[in-house]
Amino acid sequence: MKKLIVFDLDGTLAESKSSIDGEMAKLFNSLLDIVKVSIISGGAWSQFEEQVLAHLSHDARLNNLSLLPTCGTKFYKHESRWDLLYSEDFTEIEKQKIIGSLKKTMEISGCKVEKNWGEAIEDRGSQITFSALGQLAPLEEKKKWDPDFTKRKKMEAVLEKMIPEFSVRLGGTTSVDITKHGVDKAYGIRKLRDVLGIPISEMIFVGDAVFPGGNDYPAKEAGALSIQVKDPHETKRVIEAIIACLEES
Fold it and tell me: Which of 71, 73, 82, 16 is nearest to 39 (CA)?
């Protein structure tokens, strides 16, 4: 059996910007009992705290957990507390250029919306994220806004011409993520290899978008054995199967 189980967050462990439920928390605690686990997401550290950590047991099992916000440009490891090992942030000049470009693109592409639930542009240090309806938008509203990616693909096309020195990726249900080039789930997988000393061949990655063009697909391209799930419910069944295999081995 593999030595590290890696998960995406939104759509895999929990619904977008929602907390893991009680069943998922129990399964996750059981998994941490027997194997090293990691979560890689484009989300900020605060989302990991609110969506996952607040619902897990705060004990020695957390020493088996590594958290990689913004696709691995930040790396948190737990011993007696959560320590930030590194943070590869944008410079202030880079941030200003990206935020200015996003604001212009909202007008050019016609993606500006009338109602927002919170800020539309979030500075995550090593990633700038545009969330069309705001960070706190209800999930049902988010699902309706751009189900076929058409609106965000227009934004992507404009941004790629406006700021070619940065990478533009579509994430979540309403988001556009701006990072340095080469930053994706594959980047996070390689960071796990380098920091934890675990070969990629000894990892399993679980995500809801492990298909060409999906934001989880780079993890598969990096060489991690990848399992695609439809939703958190299916992820629970995968975790149960992994636990059963590990306990038998």
Answer: 71
Residue 172: closest CA among 70, 84, 86:
70
Bridge partners for 169 per DSSP: 177
The per-residue pLDDT string of the chain (249 residues; one tens digit each, 9 = 90 and over) reads 799 999 999 999 999 889 999 999 999 999 999 999 999 998 899 999 999 999 999 999 999 999 999 999 999 999 999 999 999 999 999 999 999 999 999 888 877 777 889 889 999 999 999 999 998 899 899 989 888 889 999 999 999 999 999 999 887 789 999 999 999 999 999 999 999 999 999 999 999 999 998 889 999 999 999 999 999 999 999 999 999 999 887
Query: At how many degrees (to 10) do helices 232-248 and 22-34 cross?
Result: 30
Three-class DSSP labels, 114-166: CCCCCCCEEECCCCEEEECCCCCCCHHHHHHHCCCCHHHHHHHHHHHHHCCCC
The candidate with the shortest Cα–Cα distance to 9, out of 69, 81, 77, 65, is: 69
Helix (H) or strand (E) run with residue 111 in it: none
Six-digit token string for 176: 């556009």
The pTM of the whole model exceeds 0.90? no
Amino acid at residue number 137: A
